Each structure stands twice: as C-alpha cells, then as structure tokens.
Amino acid sequence: MELKLLRVNLSKETIKEEKVDAATTKKFVGGRGIGVKILFDELKPGIDPLSPENKLIFMTGPATGTAFPACGRFHVITKSPLTGGIGDSNCGGDWGPELRFAGFDGIIFEGKAESPVYLWIHDGEAELRCAEKYWGKGIWDTEDGIREELSNPKVKFAGIGPAGENLVLNAAIINDKHRAAGRTGVGAVMGSKNLKTVAVYGTGKPQVADPEELQAAVKKAQEKLEKSAITNESLPTYGTAVLVNIINESGIYPTRNFQTGVFPTASKTSGEVIKETVLVRKKACWGCPIACGRVSRVKNPPYQTDGEGPEYETTWSLGAMCGIDNLEAITKAHNICDELGIDPISFGSTVACAMELYEKGLIPKEKLGGLEPKFGNPQAIVELAWRTAYRAGFGDEIALGAKRLAEKYGAPELAMHVKGLELPAYDPRGVKGHGLGYATSNRGGCHLRAYMIAPEIVGVPEKLDPLKTEGKAQWVKTFQDIFSICDSLVVCKFLTFALSADDLKDLTNPITGWNWTTDDLLKTGDRIYTLERMFINREDFDRKDDTLPPRLLKEPMPEGPVKGHVADLEKMLDEYYKVRGWKDGKPTKEKLKELGLA
Amino acid sequence: MPKLTIRSFATLGELLPSKNMEVSTSATTVQQLIDFIAKEYNPRFKEQIIDPKTGKVHGLYKIFVNGRDIDFVDRLETKLKDGDNVAFFPPVGGG
Fold first, then answer.
1. Long-range contacts of residues A283-286, Cβ cutoff 8 Å, at least 24 apart
2. Which residues in A lie closer than 8 A to residue B10 (C-beta atoms)?
3. pLDDT of residue A55
4. Range of the structural domain that residue B59 is part of
5. Furthest-apart CA pair in chain B: how many Å?
6. Average pLDDT of chain A?
7. Residue A43 per-residue DSSP state
8. Total domain count for chain B?
C-alpha cells in the first residue's frame, strides 16, 4: 500500500503530487506516524514554529473513509508553537474521509503565502485561491461563504478563525464547523502561513486489499460495539460528559486550577443534565456507529447560542477548572471557541491560571479592562474567549498559554502543564498510571497518548487500582503504542472501549494487505512513539521534561476520597524507561536498531 | 437506624424515585443495601447491577463508597456505616 500526498509550497505557489512508498507506509502506517516521519526527516531542529520553515501536515490513514468503524478522522502534525516540541492533533467530523474521496491521503504545507489563501481540492485537482475576503471572519461564515463561492453545498472545510490568524498559541484548526484539531496550537501554525482553510470535495472511494475479509471483520467489530454498554448506550445517550460524575465521585475532577479534585456542583454540568437541558440531538462523525457528539442550544439570554457540545473536556475546562457550574455559559464559551478557532482545553486552563494569579494578587486590576477573573465567574470565561481570539486587552495574555502567562507574573508553578501543553480533566494524584501517561506524553499534557482512565476508573480492558503504581509503566507503554496506531490508521480511540488490539489488527489487514500479527501492530506503535521521542529529544526535551506540575507532585490532595495523595512519579518513570528501552528519556541505540530507526 | 446517602447516575438514576436519596436502613454491607433498594424501590435496580449467575457486580458497573471503588475495598461485602455516601454507576466512558 502506498499513500498519495500533495506538497503545497505556499511561498512558491506550487502544488506537486508525491508518493509515500509501500515500505515506509508499512513502517509508519499513515496519519500521525507518517506525519512525524516527514517532520523528523524534513525539519531542521530549533526552527521557529511560526516561521515559513515549519511544515503543517494534514494526514488521513489507511482506514479513513473505509468500512472500518469510526474512521471519520484525520490528524494534523507540525512543530508546536505552544511547546516547541511535536505538535499534533486528531479530529473527527467529515473532512478526513472527504480528502480521501477527493483522491489524496494527505497534504504537506510548507513556506508562507504572501497574502491569505485557501486550498481547494476536488476529485484529484488542487488549486490555491485568494482568501482575503475571508481573513478576519469566523469559521462558520468562512465555510458558508466559500461553499457559496464554489457553488457546491457538499464541500468540507478544515481551517482557522481569528485566533489562528492572530497567532494565538492555543489556536485550533476547526473542521465541519464544530470539530476541533485543538491541541498544541496547530491553528497558529496555519495562521502563520496565511492559510485560511482547506476545502475538499470528492466522489471517489478508498481502495482496500480484501473487501470481503474487511466486511467479515467489520461485522465482528460491530457486534462487539453493539454489546458494549459504553459504546452502545452511555456515549450515545449522554455524550462524553457522562464522565463528569464518576470522575468527580473519584475525587479527581480538577477544580479551580487543580487546587482540589472535588467540585461540589459538578453534576450541574454532567452529561445527564446536558441531555435534560441544552441537548437538541446527538450527532455522529462520518462512519461512526457510536455518535457521542451533541447538537445543543441555549435559548435564553445572556448565553444564547446554537451549536454543538459541550464535551467532557470542555465541560470541565470552561467549568470546574474555573470554578464555574453554569452550563449555559459553558456551552456559549464552547461555541465561541469553535467559531473563532480556539483549543478550549488550553484556553480554559490558561483562564484558570489567570484566575488563581488574580486571586493571589499577582495580576494588577488595571491589566484586566474591567474584567473580574475570579473563580466561579461565568461572564469571565465567555468574555475572555472573544478577547483571546482577537488578542484584545487581557486576551492578548491568555493567548500565550498557561506556562508563559504564569512565568510572566512570576509564579510558574501555577501553570498546570506538561512540556508547555495544558493538562486535561483528570487529577493524577488519584490516578497514578494516568499521571505517568501525562508525564511521558511526547506532545505534553495530554490524556490521549495513554488513556489510563480506562483501566483505572472505567475498568476496560480490566480494572486496576487507581491508587497503586505497580505494573502501571507497562500499561502506559501499551496504551501509548495502541493509540499511536489508532492515530495513524486513523480511527477513533473510543473503539478501544469495545475492541482489542487483536480486533484492530483484524480490521487493518484486509485494508492494507499487510498480514500483521498483533505483535507487529504493537511494535509499529512502539516505533511511531519512539520516533516522536527522537523528534522532541532533538528539541532538547528529555527526562527533566517527563514530569508533572509541582502542585501535583508536592501538594497532597486537600479533600475527598484521595485526600493526602500526591502523584507518585519517579519510581514509575524508571520502570517506564526500562520497558521502553530508553535511558533518561532518550531511546537507546539498541532500541532504535530493534525498531528499524537507527 | 443508620442513614445512608444513595446516588445513582445515568441509566441507573432512572430506576429509582430520585437520583439522590437519603435512606434509613439496617443494611451494613453493600450487598444488603442493594437487596434493600430492590425490595423497597425497584427489583430491576438489582437485576441491572448484579449478575444472577455469579452473584457479583456485572462487568463495568461500579459502586463507590465514600468515593472509593468497592472492588478495591471488600467488594459487595464492603461495610457501611451511618452517614456513608454510596454511588452507583452503569458502564460509562468518554474522554
């Protein structure tokens, strides 16, 4: 299997087709794997992520747009302006499959356009077009405007809003109006290239090696997805925010900038309450039988909005993290982030950091333009979303992300981040393995490199005591390797609530014709994860960066069921490096040789 | 009699008169509490949570006593005392 890519040089206004050969595809699969391979080979270490030297890669994978369940996704890979390390984000919706229907598996953008442009791809053709009249507009108006310009209502878009244009370091790329490749500031890289959006339309169909065998594997997978109460009941009924209550009950729901893990009014923002209040209907990404998405509406002032969400992460980042339990304000802020192109996790965490800085008297009032960023103030989160996208007033400082903001005001310990990326919605003081996942994540504070919440809280694939550290290193590595494969195929990680690595292998082989064993799949995941590590090692990340914020390592949880616990990292980290074949956060020569990376 | 707070979430919450109840009961273990709820309120609640073949909690259903998963205490024999907070969850996942 080969992959067909477009290489678009925005400085020279050239577009070329090129292939990823079969051997490289088998070694790195597609999506995140091929993306990091291209970035590692082509990017010089130390470049400014917002300079024309950076590359912005959109990748689908062998599974995208096929019968593989939940394959309506794509991956964006670049050097992150927020962290200086690997920048990447995975996203659902319809855009990924549409790119393959249009005849391409991925796009590499390089250079910088002289003035704003968009790329229009349609059934094997690609052209750069002027986007000046859309520059400054929100995501939704841009999509509607270009659809009208192209006289094609079926075009799909992945692009930026004002946040990306204004180089907000937590800017997202938004596709299909409401799906966000949110993390690591990929939207700012797109903005730095004067690239507004990528419009795609296609009528083709991705080829698979053995359609009959694929059909049999899909049937088996669908039966498992239907039998799982998670994928067939709780996620479609309540959305991802069904997690709010159980995470809060476990005492690990980060509240007021991780000052505690218990938010007494968390249930007011839960999936159950969303279903009873703002939910209009559920929504699925392309080819997904789960349908965890939420179409929502707030009818009454002051937070009227029509849109989607909130998801578990945004319910938290715009909610408990800022001490806010007003679901209507959270839904409004979520939609502003979608419309203007902001990562709500990093944004909410940065606002929470600002709130703590303000309450501790470290941010002078005159900086705030009349805002009162106190924990629990819903107006602050809604107002700051606008101001951040346009870098207006204090929004210009939220645009820096939590690490830079806290450093600026002399309290770096108040930024809840790993490697510069703000942490998501689980406090690792009460889920020890998940903490190791955060610390060792190549892209920084992230729950989607290793989702140890599955075994430590949900009980999938088996239940592990969240307060124990023994054996967690191997679990974290296995999750990281399997999720590297999910991001490279490219398919939704929620499948793993019902499907095993064996099942993923059975679905992959008929598409690719590779005859993988499960060990092959895991080794390929290991290779991708290790290559990412090589990329960040080259940017000076190593053991010193595989850590957690001091609050989580040193301040015992003040209340709730995990009262007194801190994140126990060092012992697990030693064990983790051993199972990875790394030393001090760097792969050994022997390991590189074993993985074919030497 | 000891008083317990019982909270039930997602689909389980729809099986009881209230998702958040305070009950007076002589139950001193989680198993006895489930039997009490089944008798007093709705037998389906127990049928959902307990596998009749094994007598154990169905896979992925979760019971917390004061925030601790009973699987890591004494499972259905986990002791209860006055003022305890018991939470019941059906299989949930997300991220």
1. A283/A308, A285/A70, A285/A72, A285/A73, A285/A92, A285/A93, A285/A94, A285/A179, A285/A492, A286/A65, A286/A71, A286/A72, A286/A92, A286/A93, A286/A94, A286/A96, A286/A97
2. 234, 237-238, 242, 245, 271-272
3. 98
4. 3-89
5. 40
6. 98
7. P
8. 1
pLDDT at A591 over 90: yes
Q: Span A250-418: which CATH code?
A: 1.10.569.10
Helix (H, G, I), strand (E, B) or coil at A370: coil
> pLDDT: is B59 or A531 the higher one?
A531
Contacts of A235 in chain B (CB under 8 A): 93-94
pLDDT confidence bin for B59, thresholds 50/70/90: confident
CB contact under 8 A, A242 and B10: yes
**Tokens at A407, concatenated:** 């450093």
CB contact (8 A) between residue B95 and residue A312? yes
Contact call for A251 and B67, based on CB within 8 A? yes
Whose CA is closest to A494, among A558, A436, A451, A541? A451
Which among A294, A397, A407 has a CA at the least distance from the CA of A347? Answer: A397
Q: Check which CATH number belongs to the domain holding B85 and give it.
A: 3.10.20.30
**CATH class of the domain defined by A3-201:** alpha beta
Instruction: Report phi then psi at A320, rounded to 5.
Output: -55, -40
With tokens 């209340």, the residue in question is A559
Q: What are the residue boundaries of the structural domains of chain A, listed by start?
A: 3-201, 250-418, 426-497+517-594
CB contact under 8 A, A234 and B91: yes
A74 CB-side CA count, 13 A = 30
Q: Is the pLDDT of residue B1 over 90?
A: no
Is A460 in contact with B60 (Cβ distance < 8 A)? Answer: yes
Tell whether A144 is within 8 A of chain B (Cβ).
Answer: no
Say how many Å lie between the first and final Cα of chain B, rounded: 40
Q: Which among A322, A324, A328, A326 has a CA at the least distance from the CA of A306?
A: A328
CATH of domain A426-497+517-594: 1.10.599.10
At A503 the pLDDT is 98
Q: In this complex, which of A230, A246, A561 lies closest to B66 when CB atoms are compared?
A: A561
**pLDDT tens-digit map of B65-81:** 999 999 999 999 999 99
